Amino acid sequence: MGLIDRLNSINNNNVDLNDKKELKNNSINEIEKETEKEKQKQSEKTHLQKIVYNTSNKQQTGKEKELKNKIQKTILTQFKNDDVEKIISEIDSIALEIIKKDGEYLGDIDRKAVIDEIINDLTGFGPITPLLKDEDISEVMVNGPHRVYVERKGKVVLTDVQFRNDEHVMHIIEKIVSPLGRRIDESSPMVDARLPDGSRVNAIIPPLALKGPTITIRKFSKDPFTIENLISFGTLTRDMAIFIDACVKARLNIFISGGTGSGKTTTLNVLSSFIPDDERIITIEDAAELQLGQDHVISLESRPANIEGTGAITIRDLVKNSLRMRPERIVIGEVRGGEALDMLQAMNTGHDGSLATGHSNSPRDMIARLETMVLMAGMELPVRAIRQQISGAIDLIIQQSRLSDGSRRIVSITEVQGMEGEVVVLQDIFTFKQQGKDQNGKLIGKMISTGIRPKFYDKLLASGIQVPDSIFQIEEW
């Protein structure tokens, strides 16, 4: 029985007057509570609606979908062997002709929106093309045909973009991976790829993805970020930039560690830009993302196994091969397996100035992960021998994090000083001190120098690189 019915029942039945009043008051209180709950639910719903990122694309009406299908059929019959440019130039006239012939398409049909969608399907990547062109968006996540999220200014939000169905999403995935000679199907339902602009793509499809084909695109800026951009974003300070620039030019071996989406590859790209133009650089990646501006750059990319399960070329294979290519610098996009051993050996045998990234939560964790990855190479080495290799090879670990407010910052720059007993000795040169949040939820904090000059400071001087002493002065904050 509802609350209103209960009130009516109280009024109609023979109940003692005082009991009646008490029952009525209790029922009214319950009604007020129910109303308050409804208001709260509505408020939460409104808040969720506010965080949806609206694009200029509105949902098509039934008539617009019919018009789009007719235009597509006309294109297939009339322009089978013609190039895309010719088809695009004719789409508008085809649409006008169909509208003139069939009066039902006159009225509230947005012809331009229909034509734009067809062009996006032909030359771009379907409904997500506007998202890829939006410079404020750094990541696009397609969770099946009807849920598309983006990362915008550090925050993940839902968009109003939708695909028609699973087949439409699959068509876009095929369009991305086919030009790269990669495939995706039920026998190989996962793939890593890249867009023509270098943006990184991962796709996974049923039966592994239960809610439909899923695409994750990590966008890259058309113009690679510079150190000045990172300073303006608050990723690091100018003193840190001067110090890192000196370390790269002095041919120190540097490892960038951090979590997923923390900005490791962007920082690696910026550090690589410090390498002098006259040096031969070899980059090794799973999916080529680095955008180096130097002339003498050789980019290598790993390859998955073919349909017979053979022909795979791993990062480790490429690291071994790169040593025969007379490299002056080796830049590895991400170290995640047995290639760690070959990388450390290269760093310890004259290949100074190498750069690499890896996943970890802190510099100390990065050392532990490198130990594990060396063991993944299948070599039964004592832990002490592995640690000696690590401490002898790596000079500097740059730790980067994506913080709770969505900002990406370098939270520590740590020197690897060597071994002390059984332990690899680490010393922070710069560290991030956080003091809270402001009223907008932004973190309040600052990168400060620990006041300790690194042991390799003499190596910087020997390379003819002057680093101001003021950089290492201790800061109180």
- The helical percent reads 25-40%
Unreliable stretches: 43-50
Total individual domains: 3
As for the CATH topology of the largest domain, it is Rossmann fold
Q: Please give the CATH architecture of the largest domain.
A: 3-Layer(aba) Sandwich
Name of the CATH class of the largest domain: Alpha Beta
Overall mean pLDDT stands at 82
E-strand count = 15
> In the CATH hierarchy, what is the superfamily of the largest domain?
P-loop containing nucleotide triphosphate hydrolases
Question: Looking across the biggest beta sheet, what order are the strands in?
Answer: 9-8-10-11-7-12-13-14-15
Strand portion: 15-25%
User: What structural category arises from helix and sheet content?
Assistant: alpha/beta
Organism: Clostridium grantii DSM 8605
Coiled coil: 14-44
Family: Belongs to the GSP E family.
InterPro entries: P-loop_NTPase, T2SS/T4SS_dom, T4SS_GSP_E_ATPase
Name the features.
Rossmann fold, P-loop_NTPase, 39% helix, Beta-Lactamase, 15 helices, T2SS/T4SS_dom, alpha/beta, Pilus assembly protein CpaF, 9-stranded mixed sheet, T4SS_GSP_E_ATPase
